[in-house]
Amino acid sequence: MFRHRHMDPLRGSREGAFTLIEIVVALTIIAIIAAVAIPTLKGIGREERARAPVAALASLVQEVRARALRERKPYQIVFEKTGLHGLADGFPTANREDFLKALDTARTPPPGQEFERTTPEIADVVTAPATVGNQTTPPPAATTTAPPPRRWEPPWSVSITLEDRAECEVLLWGDGEWDLLEGEDLRRWVFQPSGLTSPLSVRMRTRAVEIEATFDALTGEIVRERIDFLDQKP
Length: 234
Prior knowledge:
Number of strands: 13
Largest sheet: 5 strands, antiparallel
CATH topology of the domain at 28-106 and 154-232: minor pseudopilin epsh fold
Shape: extended
Order of helices and strands: HHEEHEEEEEEEEEEE
Number of helices: 3
Strand content: 25-35%
């Protein structure tokens, strides 16, 4: 004989679904994870913004070093209180005012002209008339050939402007103490045609953060870095 088993129509659906307690527990875990992750992500974003000046300097170091190697001539980075400047060696660096004036002059095209001539013009050529039988053939019209003009290009340079009221200090190899750049002070960091430079540490400070980085003399890469958020200290 066959026996009919009466199945509860809701039993299968209850076994495959989540209970209210399970849903509450899952939501609680998600809330805890979010509470921990969101401040961490905000901190990462704040740290990246704080690192922006040093990251820009690190990129400039690699560009200056690559140019010194490629062109076989010295390049430099000049530090002054309002910015950092990468350019070829040889600019006046006695004081900040003279340096900035020379840099501005080098970046300014000649007055009143966008192009400059690189070769002299070819003078007119006068040809004596040619005689054929009793007829005289006039000479061809004289022409003047001018070389194509070349667009004026300033020497390569890059400037990084520091945040308003930011302080910049540098420590070159052999210096006994940090040099705070203020007034007309400036410091030169020269890269030789071999790519070598002296070791340098730079420290940048605002009211909210202080960041310090040390660059390697052989590769120009950052070998040590420190960030302190001053507004979080007691």
